[in-house]
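Regression report. Comparing outputs from two consecutive submissions.

Submission 1:
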Amino acid sequence: MSFVITSGSKQYLVKSGQKFVVDRLKNEEGTEISFDVLFSVGDVKKTTITAKIVKHQRGKKIRIVKYKAKSNYHKQSGYRHEETVLEIL
């Protein structure tokens, strides 16, 4: 069974038992969260899905580079995005 859920302003296609990454949630690790189902594929008509927070982590580093030719200007910065790993129950 596949379900479409929303977290924040994004939609995710998930299956039961699947682990997936969303933007950082304020709840603690080990707690269960319920999401509203927008669309379900198959026979089952569910309105909510529960997921367990597995862990909080930081994502891959994103680099931002600014460069201007012929003026010896180059600047580099970056950040790591905060993420939460969820498991569908």
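Submission 2:
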Amino acid sequence: MTKKSKKSVSELPKYEDWLITSLKNKKRAEVYLETALEEYQEDGNPAPLLLAFRHVALAQGGMAKLAEKTDLNRETLYRTLSNKGNPRVLTLAKLLQALGFHLAIKAN
């Protein structure tokens, strides 16, 4: 019987690294963005929604690639998706399209 070596906390994968890897899967990214949008609709705090966009952008090729697909420069994109960002609906629609998603309306 072999003993499993225990890893120290510093050797464990970081949550954000795991999350970015997980969000490469389109279905997981879809659920993640939907959940963030629902939370935004409940509490009105845009920061978690913008963070979700940043995470999905990183998972789907990075900010530079997203900037290229949306015809936005990287600085504008980083500012738009920052905690203090306030993107317009058209900008969010453009970001979603570039990431392979679209806006949808559902009745409660």
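Expected: both submissions complete independently.
Actual: both completed, but the second showed a warning that disappeared on reload.
Relevant detail on submission 2: The chain has a mean pLDDT of 90.
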